[in-house]
Amino acid sequence: MKNKYAASLASVVALLILVACGSQSTQMNSVEQNSLTLVTGITGNQGGGVASTLLEEGYAVRGMTRSPDSEASQLWSDLGVEMVYGDFTDRASINAALQGVDYLFINLQEQVPDYINANKYLLDAANEAGVQHILYSSNRRSEPELPQSASKTDIELYLRESGYSYTTLRIPQMMSNFVRERDMANVLRNGVVGRGSEQATFAYFSPDDLGPMAVAAIEDTEAWNGREINLAGDELTDRDLAHLLRELSGLDIEYTAPPQPPEERWLANQGLAYDTEQLRAEFPSMMTLRQYLIQNNYGENLKEMSLQPLLPAQPQRGGPPAR
Fold first, then answer.
1. What average pLDDT does the segment 71-81 reach?
2. Among residues 162, 202, 188, 223, which one has the least CA distance to residue 299?
3. pLDDT (tens digit per residue) in 283-315
4. Cβ neighbours of 157 (radius 10 Å)
5. pLDDT > 90: percent of the chain
6. Main-chain dihedrals φ then ψ at residue 177, nearest 5 degrees
7. Model-level pTM?
8. Rounded Cα gap, residues 202 and 96, in angstroms
9. Which of 57, 74, 192, 196 could form a disulfide with 200 if both were Cys (CB 3.0 to 4.6 A apart)?
């Protein structure tokens, strides 16, 4: 079994092999030749997905991390990424990382100290540094029109009113969460526990599909300016999800009806509209959850884990994870 970190490193190694074998295109258009994209969170799933596609397309990438000497950072350096130190509590490091940057992908986790002000500072500093377009990773539960309050809602409103060129990508549950050991252990322990009504669908998105959208936004910032997209590569009810996991693994993965009433943290997800159909028309290669799980050997890994002692249960916090 690979843990999340090992899986992340494996994906970078695979990309390194492609580059070494000459798979990376040597033809770059004028935008690619003269631009630099700063990717925050490059060692995570979202940032890694964006950076991988940018590199494959011949773009220059700078990665910001608190640990530029780590193994993961070194792998990105070997691919040609300029890895730089950046800490959101150290504004001088943010200013330095933004120098010469044309495009910016932002994925800040809410554990960052003074999260809202850290986001706002990064946005303002990017504008002052001459960044042409900002790609902001938000989540579907934070859409400003929804009634609940959340920190990412504040950032979305700030960005919308800023006058900066931007695209907001609202992330649902990442498909990559399924292959984390703790999430697989929870499936073995509990099956699939319903989170809402029987008819409620939940959206899923592959981090690998973020990259093509980032490229599209960079190549046509005018068309993408102001777009606020509710990402989804697939939508399933929890009962359908249990059926899919059972089919792929051959294990007895049960569906359990949700508690009554459903937990409050899931209520905001009921009946939300996602842009699945439109996105699939724009990006036909966008993965379904089935495709992603098969590609990542989910069924075999889950069967292997079922033969071992389970990891301790992990408490769930907040809404659907979206890393």
1. 95
2. 188
3. 999 999 999 999 999 999 999 999 998 867 765
4. 12
5. 68
6. -60, -30
7. 0.83
8. 40
9. 196
Phi, psi dihedral angles at 150 (to 5 degrees): -150, 155
pLDDT at 38 over 80: yes
Q: Which neighbouring-strand residues pair with 40? A: 64
Q: Give dist(CA 320, CA 323) in Å, integer.
A: 10
* pLDDT value at residue 134: 98
Q: Which parts of the chain fold into alpha helices (H)?
A: 4-20, 30-33, 45-56, 71-78, 91-98, 115-128, 151-162, 181-190, 210-219, 221-224, 238-249, 264-267, 276-282, 289-295, 298-306
Helix (H, G, I), strand (E, B) or coil at 138: strand
Alpha helices in 88-133 (DSSP H): 91-98, 115-128
| Secondary structure of residue 89 in the 3-state scheme | coil
Q: Crossing angle, helix 115-128 and helix 151-162, to 10 degrees?
A: 20
SS3 236: strand
Strand pairing category for 82-85 and 173-174: unpaired
155-163 CB contacts, 8 Å cutoff, 24+ apart = 155/116, 155/119, 155/120, 155/123, 156/228, 158/119, 158/120, 158/123, 159/123, 159/134, 160/226, 160/228, 162/123, 162/124, 162/127
